[in-house]
Amino acid sequence: MERLIHRLIPFNDQQKEAVDWARNEIWSIYAALKKYKKKPGKQEAARLRKQFQSLCATRTDYETLNSLLKRMANNEHELFRVLDRPEIPLHNNLSERDIRDYVKKRKISGSTRSDTGRKCRDTFASLKKTCRKHRISFWDYLIDRTSGSNLIPSMAEILQAAAC
Q1: What phi-psi label fits residue 110: left (phi over 0), alpha (psi between -120 and 50 degrees) or beta?
Q2: How far is Cα 66 from Cα 61, in angstroms, rounded to an integer?
Q3: How far apart are CA 161 and CA 105, in angstroms?
Q4: Is residue 20 a contact partner of residue 29, using CB atoms and an 8 Å limit?
Q5: What DSSP element (H or E) covers 151?
Q6: Cβ burial 71-102 (10 Å sphere, 16+ → b, else e)
Q7: Cβ-based neighbour number of residue 138 at 10 Å
Q8: Residue 15 CA to chain centroid, in angstroms?
């Protein structure tokens, strides 16, 4: 939430104060969400939503900040999903870390030449990450599947077992 506001470049003291205020409000909400995850409650969820809506409804002298606050308001459901499901993480650091290898490779070698190549790359990247998360050798899994020996359970079975 705060990343876009952090990137703003205010041109005067009023805009700087508005940006600083918005960033402080966002970090205050984030701290409250962390506490909420430990002890969820309907009243606290309502209070947090109201605080967020108040932040997003605020109009400052900085139009770019105002548009970002409006954009955040449009994403309220996504940003506050944790109020309905406290077990989910507050950030997407794990997801971003999962695609980091792919992004580095794409920057170095460019993209694929076809949709089939893109699908293949995406499938193998996902399979590799999933194997790594479940402490399975990606290479051994590929050999097991291509040889037909099926000594390693299918990925569907591995995921079902992990979900239980």
Answers
A1: left
A2: 8
A3: 32
A4: no
A5: none
A6: ebeeeeeebbebbeeeeeeeeeeeeeebeeeb
A7: 14
A8: 28
| pLDDT tens for each residue of 17-74 | 999 999 999 999 999 998 988 899 899 999 999 999 999 999 999 999 999 999 999 9
CB 36 within 8 A of CB 83: yes
Task: State in Å, rounded, how far the first CA of the chain is from the last one.
Answer: 32
User: pLDDT of 112-139, one tens digit each?
Assistant: 778 888 888 888 888 998 899 899 999 9
Is 116 in contact with 128 (CB distance < 8 Å)? no
- Give residue 26's identity as a one-letter amino acid code: I
- Output DSSP code: residue 28: H
Record the pTM. Answer: 0.58
- pLDDT digit string (tens) for 61-109? 999 999 999 999 998 888 888 888 888 777 666 656 666 776 777 777 7
Measured CA to CA, the distance from residue 31 to residue 80 in angstroms comes to 13
- Residues 150 and 126: their CA atoms lie apart, in Å, by 20
CA 28/CA 43 separation, integer angstroms = 17
